Amino acid sequence: MSKFKLFVLMQVLFAFACVMFTTGCGKEKKQFKADVMIWHWMTDRQEAFEKLAEQYYKQTGIRVAFETYAPTDVYKNKISAAATANLLPDVFNPMADKKETAAYINAGFIADLTEEMETDEWKETFFPKALSQNTFEFGNEWDVKSGIYAVPLDVNSLMIYYNKDLFAQAGLDPENPPKTWPEFIEAGKALRAANIQPFTSGFGEGWLIGAFAQSYQWNLFGKEGVLETIEGKISYTDPRWVKIFELFSEMREHKLFASGIVTMVNKDAERSFATGKAAMAFNGSWGVNVYHSMAPNLNYGVMPPPALTDAEYPLLMFGGEGSSLFVNEKSQNKQKAIDFLRWMTQVESQVFLAEETLNIPSNKNAASDLPPVLRVFSENIVNTFDSLPKIESWQVTNFININLQSVIIGERTPAQAAKEVQDEKERQMKAGK
After folding, report:
1. Could you report the per-residue pLDDT of 33-77, keeping only the tens digit for each?
2. What's this model's pTM, rounded to 2 decimal places?
3. How far apart are CA 239 and CA 424, in angstroms?
4. What does the buried/exposed string (b/e) look like for 187-222 if buried means 16 or more CB atoms within 10 Å of the residue's CB?
5. Coil, strand or helix: which one is 81?
6. Crossing angle of helices 239-253/414-431, nearest 10°?
7. Is residue 204 within 8 Å of 362, Cβ to Cβ?
8. End-to-end Cα separation, the chain, in angstroms
9. What pLDDT, on a 0 to 100 scale, did the predictor assign at position 321?
10. 318-182-246 Cα angle (round to 5)
11. Which residues contact 307 (CB under 8 A, 6 or more apart)?
């Protein structure tokens, strides 16, 4: 049995029910025989996708079907099971990090789109950061041939939303949000003094608290330092890493955090911000659509995470990624699938998707008429993390996130938290030898 099949077999038991009995696992619409079948998880975009598919059929006579499977764990398991059984659709997304995606590529399930992207300069239409997330660089650690392996539909970044009315109530300038860390702490103190909860986010979700911390890793270490940390050349007990944990301790000391933030899922944090129960919320660009649906008249702006005044490198933000679609290398309809994705990422289609879903289009030429807040996100895509040829192990990443949470609730000091992470790093490096 190949390594890939062994990997997906561990996930297949639950997913088998979804493959055999799709009722309850997804929402299927098989009203016609499709020329191109696309499986996705984006329930909020199904209607927009269907409208585009109908337009494409009228123009080309090619039938494209979108099938939704949610939530994302159901979708991911379905993809794993379908790969094991060689039943993947023409277009899909493995919902995986680069290591897992590499396994799909090396197993022959994902097409290399580099040559297609070079045709008619297709790749030049995208935000570079959107494209880089689906690109494997030469010499990557997973032995994947360098190239582009997916088509980005949209792009996102994470920033801090702030309620302008609550800022004004606390005596803060709503048109001049804090830009540096000291200004951020002072703003939080002013909000708390006005009996306003300063800051919320779904920090019960490890990836979100980790994304906030990573901005400061890039701020203090720069790209080379981030890579050297992954390689084990820089210890997590380095004073700069201790400082990152200290930032969370400082926010706790000044009571900036919402009560229960370390167990809060992002949906609850979004609801708290939308209803005016918190003045600031760390969230992604998709929040524009969320807040529009929850509170259409909410008066808010967005700002980057505040930079450290003594940092050597620019502060960058988590983002550049978005929703992407991969083409099944083994599909008999491979070229039809690529042609549709090319059409779907042209300006007219991208403008339609942006208007319907309030997401930043991956086609940079379609981003000129975005709503003001979404435009700020769009303009800051250039300030998101670079794609890296290596990633930290999930075990160490999990330890970072858990220990950030422990600092917030006062269970560990920053120095203790940093040592815990380094101990796990050393365990993983020994295990990898």
Report:
1. 899 999 999 988 999 999 999 999 999 999 999 999 988 889 999
2. 0.83
3. 18
4. bbebbbeeebbbbbbbbbbbebbbbbbbbbbbbbbb
5. helix
6. 140
7. no
8. 23
9. 79
10. 65
11. 179, 180, 181, 219, 314, 315
